[in-house]
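User: Hi! I have a protein structure encoded as tokens and I'd like to know what sequence might fold into it. I'm fairly new to this, so please keep things simple.
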């Protein structure tokens, strides 16, 4: 039980998103399957017809450089990465188990696929949360731009309220706002809003 949990945690840290799909890299899969990366890739090449582009692809140089800058830390790891690794999708991982033909490969593949599914479920269940976060980020960026513009604008020295590129005299502004109210005025945290 503990080993399966540890494997799942390790798998989660080795799932990346490239080309808008979840993938695992050949070197990480080789470690989990307890074979050398070279052996794994040779087995794939012998059965290349089982690995179409939506099952496996090699990272581009840009993808590889980006991944390496984000993930590789030790000198030995960098030495072992002379070429861009192959990335395997969920279907590619499933196919690897049949190509490697070992009990470990089958057990680990099942665990990897379950992890892919749990991550996909987590993402789909929280899609609204991610959309809200994106909306908030966009609003913050918009407010930041407006605030930067406000700080860069030279204001006259006379006192007043600055709004939309104009200066308003505070008394005249509030007086006009009060006169525009039809029935009542609501004051919330020093913000006046006429009710029409």
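Assistant: Happy to help. Inverse folding works backwards from shape to sequence: for each of the 196 positions I chose a residue that suits the local structure. Here it is:
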């Amino acid at each position: 039980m503990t080993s399966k949990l540890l494997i799942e945690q390790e798998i989660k840290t080795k799932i990346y998103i490239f080309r808008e799909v979840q993938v695992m890299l050949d070197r990480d899969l080789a470690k989990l399957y307890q074979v050398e990366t070279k052996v794994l890739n040779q087995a794939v090449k012998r059965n290349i017809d089982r690995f179409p582009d939506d099952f496996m692809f090699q990272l581009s140089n840009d993808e590889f450089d980006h991944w390496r800058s984000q993930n590789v830390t030790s000198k030995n790891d960098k030495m072992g990465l002379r070429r861009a690794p192959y990335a395997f999708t969920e279907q590619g991982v499933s196919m690897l188990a049949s190509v490697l033909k070992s009990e470990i490969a089958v057990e680990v593949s099942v665990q990897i696929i379950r992890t892919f599914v749990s991550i996909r479920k987590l993402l789909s269940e929280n899609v609204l949360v991610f959309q809200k976060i994106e909306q908030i980020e966009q609003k913050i960026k918009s407010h930041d731009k407006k605030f930067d513009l406000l700080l860069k604008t030279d204001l006259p020295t006379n006192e007043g309220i600055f709004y939309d590129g104009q200066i308003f005299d505070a008394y005249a502004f509030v007086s006009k706002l009060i006169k525009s109210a039809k029935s009542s005025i609501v004051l919330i945290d020093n913000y006046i809003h006429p009710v029409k």
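A useful reference point when you look it over: The mean pLDDT is 76. Feel free to ask if any position seems puzzling.
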